[in-house]
Amino acid sequence: MKNTLVIAALASGAIVTLAHCSKQSPAAETSVGAPASPAADRAALVERGRHLVESVGMCTDCHAPRLPSGEFDKSRYLMGSELPFRPTVPMPFVPVAPPLAGLPTLPTDEAAVEFMMTGKRPSGAPVMPPMPQIRLKRDEAEAVVAYLRSLKPTA
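-> structure tokens emitted (155 positions)
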């Protein structure tokens, strides 16, 4: 009976701790519990956008040129690239992926966020294959836009 009470007490403590921790956003506080600075919030947003672009959306596969070795050309990272493939049947197709660094084709952050949420350009036209019509949530789109705006286009 005594062991059962100890286990129940430990389990209750763990549940309370988990509930408390789940209500706190790790990005909203520093390691000492003080509110994070706007710069830290921005850095976290940009980092989340980088993760979504590079590891989830895999945008680099089409929008970043490669060297003859197959590695990405870091001097032209996300600056657009000719696609190394073509459709096997006649269809609408854009053979060059446009630049993403700095988002030069989307003049405002709101237009860029809307594009990331709907897959439609500011004109209302959908993207052309092979680009998928992306449908990000607003917070994801804002993170992607923050990251891409943080990249400076190179000449």
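The first helix runs from residue 2 to 23.
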